[in-house]
Amino acid sequence: MTSSITAATLTVTITEAVSLNGYDQGASNSLTISSINEVFKRIVTCPASNTTTLLTFNSNVYGAAGALDLEDTKYIRITNKDDSNSIKLAIVGATTLYQVALGTGESHILGNPDDLMLAETDTSPSFGTMADVSSIQVNPGSNAVDVEVFVASA
User: Fold this and answer.
1) Is pTM, for the whole model, over 0.90?
2) Average pLDDT over every residue of 1-17
3) Closest by alpha carbon to 75, among 152, 131, 149?
4) Do residues 49 and 141 lie in contact, with contact meaning Cβ atoms separated by under 8 Å?
């Protein structure tokens, strides 16, 4: 296939800016990911009291409806765009999941979803074999909430 899309480098910069007693206590960190030639970006209104699947992954894009390629995905950001309501975000694997709460304006950032996660039921990390992420889902509780999704793939 011939394509007119030229791969580019994604640069992600996270900056914390805070001054305490006149001294800068912030930091700035940058990540560059080369050979990005696909992006997926959308804002989703997640209806109140319902779980919404934001992303699904498969080993190929034709393997499941609307799936992103598991191996080609390099960067994922989910941001709660609501001004007053938090959300619960679930990172779902084939047999386990983990959940995080995102307050107003907060983001959850992930790298490549291939062999990314391990959920455990105890408080002693095994640092065992990581599993693939199969989907990312959100539940906004009793209020509809806008969520921004950004994915970069090679």
Assistant:
1) yes
2) 93
3) 152
4) yes
Dihedrals phi, psi of 9, to nearest 5 degrees? -100, 130
The pLDDT score that the predictor gives to residue 55 is: 98
* Alpha carbon distance, N-terminus to C-terminus of the chain: 15
Asked whether 149 and 55 are in contact (CB, 8 A), the reply is: yes
Which segments of the chain are extended strands (E)? 8-16, 19-20, 23-24, 27-36, 38-46, 52-58, 68-69, 73-80, 87-93, 97-102, 107-110, 133-139, 145-153
Q: Is the pLDDT of residue 68 over 90?
A: yes
- How far apart are the C-alpha atoms of 8 and 152, rounded to whole Å? 10
- 111 Cβ contact partners less than 8 Å away, ≥ 6 residues apart: 74, 75, 76
- Distance, in Å, from the CA atom of 38 to the CA atom of 59, rounded to the nearest integer, reads 16
Amino acid in position 21: N
Take residue 102 and report the two structure tokens written for it.
Answer: 């995102």
